[in-house]
């Protein structure tokens, strides 16, 4: 099995090194091949997503991605900025389902801004559709307002749209993910106001007929936002569109305390995927050896589960991460008095040791 390793910029190479260490001690015969992406792609090849990197990503069974972005590239035109690499990979690899588990390990209950009893033991999965919705709908732009009370003024406008097949495929991902969890799906929409999301609700309800073992309920997005903060443990799998998912997944991320703990997966129709920590390249701490590598290591676990058919190896990694937290080891972002502060390398080594 071939895995494309794309470390990227900032803390990307530091955290990726730890995930590679972990992959190398699993006793599997993975072929790991590394390529430049983001600012590193631009610096070495003149483009944030060099053709050779894209070719590797296409040829691989899965992609493990670090993070991209560096302020030194801020003056470049938009198409050459490091962040274009991740957008390009999503588009070129047809990755339409973004999975973000929000898990709060009991040892980190004190790291959340919410009361421990509200979040401890939290284990929910947010599934965000990535290709449709108002983010990509056309027409869009700024024009002269054609009618209504503001007729004749300039107005900005976008178009919200979802094709039936786009809704069907993300609904299947959600129901199938729920089959491996608590068998409950909450579809989040705004069917009371938006035609697009009434359609979404109807299609999700129709796809649900193929999954009689899964409990489905529908929730309006404003209520879902409220419930995520009030009683997040009520959820199992949430599935929603691109814009609502963007917002709700960041909200859910913060329930767990540190962005340094959160993995993510972006999948295509055949469960091939790109796996990456939810955070960016953290230029403020890059090169200091203090970044938390656990989100990247846990992303590698998701990769083993969803793309490489090795759920038992994924569980081994997750168990090792829990063991390391139970030992009291903490990087700076999750440090609390009474625990032991470690650097990026030490954290990676501790996970490797726990695996053995
Ligand atoms: P960021 O996620 O890189 O950092 C936000 C804050 O969290 C910083 O204080 C950082 O030090 C901290 N942090 C992030 N990851 C951490 C880790 N593993 N351990 C400990 N602390 C961690 O977001 P920011 O600062 O908004 O963006 C920095 C750069 O990253 C920008 O160029 C941005 O465009 C890019 N970015 C890239 C993403 C990607 O590659 N998918 C996603 C988000 C941002
Ligand atoms: Mg976001």
Can you summarize this structure?
The chain is α/β, with parallel strands linked by helices. Helix content is 38%, strand content 19%.
Structure report:
The chain has 12 helices and 14 strands. It is α/β, with parallel strands linked by helices and 356 residues long. Helix 1 packs across helix 10, helix 6 crosses helix 7 (195-208) and helix 11 packs across helix 12 (344-355). The strands form 3 sheets. Strands 2-1-3-12-11-4-5-10-8-9 form a 10-stranded mixed sheet, sandwiched between helices. A two-stranded antiparallel ribbon has the order 6-7. It has a two-stranded parallel ribbon with strand order 13-14. The relative contact order is 0.16. It has helices at residues 12-24, 39-45, 51-59, 84-92, 116-119, 164-179, 195-208, 221-230, 242-255, 294-306, 311-326, 344-355, and strands spanning 2-8, 31-34, 62-67, 97-103, 123-129, 141-144, 154-157, 184-189, 215-220, 237-240, 263-267, 273-277, 329-330, 340-341. It has 2 domains: 1-99 and 263-356, Isopropylmalate Dehydrogenase (3-Layer(aba) Sandwich); 123-255, Isopropylmalate Dehydrogenase (3-Layer(aba) Sandwich), CATH 3.40.718. Helix content is 38%, strand content 19%. The longest helix is centred in the middle third of the chain and has 16 residues, at 164-179. Helix 1 links the parallel strand 1 and strand 2. The mean pLDDT is 95. The structure holds 1,4-dihydronicotinamide adenine dinucleotide and magnesium ion (MG). 1,4-dihydronicotinamide adenine dinucleotide (NAI) binds at residues 11, 15, 67-69, 83, 86, 259-260, 276, 279-285, 291-292, 295, 333. 1,4-dihydronicotinamide adenine dinucleotide (NAI) binds next to loops.
